[in-house]
Design a protein that fits this description.
The chain is an alpha+beta fold. The protein is about 30% helix and about 20% strand. The protein contains 10 helices and 19 strands. The protein has helices spanning about 1-20, 30-35, 75-85, 100-110, 120-130, 135-150, 155, 165-175, 265-280, 290-305; strands at about 25, 40-50, 55-60, 70, 90-95, 115, 195-200, 235-240, 245, 250, 255, 320, 330-335, 345-350, 350-355, 360, 365-370, 375, 385. It has a 6-stranded mixed β-sheet. α9 (about 265-280) runs antiparallel to α10.
Amino acid sequence: MLQNELKLRRDKIRALMAQRGIDAALITCNVNLIYTYGRVVSGYLYLPLQAPAQLFVKRPNNLAGEYVRPIRKPEQLPDLLKECGLALPARLMLEGDELSYNEYGRLAACFPEAEVLPCGTELIRRARSVKTEMEVELFRRSGAAHARAYAQIPSVYKPGMTDRQLSIEIERLMRLEGCLGIFRVFGRSMEIFMGSVLTGNNAAAPSPYDFALGGEGLDDSLPGGANGTLLQAGQSVMVDLGGNFYGYMCDMSRVYSIGHLPQKAYDAHQACLEAQAEVTALAKPGVTGEALYQKAVEVVEKAGFADYFMGIGQKAKFVGHGIGLEINESPVLAPRMKQELEPGMVFALEPKIVLPEIGPVGIENSWAVTSDGVEKLTQAPEEIVSLN
């Protein structure tokens, strides 16, 4: 069954290659190897347009199979391909947006007669943006595990905790439910450890990363998330930890409170729930990310919380993002995003509001696009839950 699934994924890439007249792809980056081969290896998956994929592996050395061969260095690839009875490609694509300059140059030099194209990252991410049935099922399972961990959060809270201490306890709950811990992000400009737990004014602290909310973090070397703020009465706590249970980055945020919050916090939270309801009622194949973003803005503006929507001083310019093997895939729900939803796309929708001196409120769930709407993948209570 897994082999049929992997072939289905590889054939999606082949279809995009055929549209551009590309003979083969050479895949070596971890996330793309997971997608096309089912696991991380040190090596190269050679994906011809018209023949079975071949894995040339350096490590681990215990893999075997009809289409698996050992390799020490990429310069061996042309001879190994000939031994497999494969003609060398006239047009070869590499993962141009992920390989380092040196890696790209070295791989390209192995095929001096070929036209080497850097569009591998673009085409593979496009194929990955529409999930298979198996991938959506993995999201469902991740969502269930994510919800089980979040349901236990009130049990680990103790008065006098800091956001960091609470985050550590929630991270433990997540790991016990099977979370893999690693938080995969496309690109080299965003980093975070598992996710964020934000309270009070720290939620409004600007971040260098393109996240919905920031947080100072514990050190300037990782400026995002909890910063050691004491959890105090009358403040909200937003938990936004990435649910990577099966390699896929399920995304869910929930809000908790230390005691009772001012009424405007509950009103703002309700505005976010209404934004979620109206956006998801509109979401279906053919609708653009821009249209969904504008709908969320309309709801929040009508409720009177536009100044606090998606941040205060530094605002996120999106309300949702595609998810998958990485946390930032297509589609993006943002201004000027004309890409239309397609069945099989999976995205996180996260309308959030930050209130000065109180903290963040709002909601985030993961959704799969169906033939006529969307399916919620993260099923957990959405009201603000008091921790004491």
